Every structure is written in C-alpha cells, then in structure tokens.
Amino acid sequence: MYLLGIGIVLLALKYLEIGAVAEWSWWWVLSPFALAVAWWAWADWSGYTKRKAMERESTRKQARIDKSREALGMAPKKRRR
C-alpha cells in the first residue's frame, strides 16, 4: 500500500511539474506502481495474504471467546506457548 501511495504522489508531482520530479523520466515515476503489482503477485503466490487473513480471524475469534468468558464470570484461559 505504501508503494501505491508513493506512486500517486510522484505521479501528481510529475503531472503538475513540481520540484525535481518534473525532470525525472516517466519510468522512474511509474516504477512504484510496477513494484506494487510485483508485491501483490508475490503475496498472493506465496500465501502471505491468506496467512495474514487467517491470523486476523484467529485473533478476532479469540477476543470474542475471551469477551464471552468474561461476561459469564469465567477468567479467560492463558494460552500456553
């Protein structure tokens, strides 16, 4: 997401001809978009995206369980590591 933001800022600076970016080649200005596409392709291919989604779901599920136990007056169990 950071690469996309950087790309948008550089694109705006190039289009509006502001600062040193106005003199840069279009290849340099558009390169963050290519890097973002490469990152997303790698993240999907390697399973990184799915793994992070599963971790978020697991964390939310455990928080719901702990909240329910607390509402029932039961202490939440400590996870062993």
Q: Summed up, what is this model?
A:
With 81 residues, the chain is mainly α.
- Any idea what the shape is? elongated
| Relative strand content | under 5%
**What average pLDDT do the residues reach?**
90
Number of strands: 0
Number of helices: 3
The assigned structural class equals mainly alpha
The ordered H/E elements are HHH
The N- and C-terminal alpha carbons lie at a distance of 33 Å
Share of helix, binned: over 70%
**Uncertain residue ranges:** none
Largest sheet, strands/sense/barrel? none
User: What is the alpha-carbon Rg in Å?
Assistant: 22 Å
Domain module tally: 2
Chain-wise SSE layout:
Layout: H1 2-15, H2 26-46, H3 48-71
Helix pairs in contact: 1-2
Q: How is this structure best described in words?
A:
The chain is an all-alpha fold and 81 residues long. The protein folds into two domains: 1-46, no CATH class; 47-81. It has three helices and no strands. The mean pLDDT is 90.
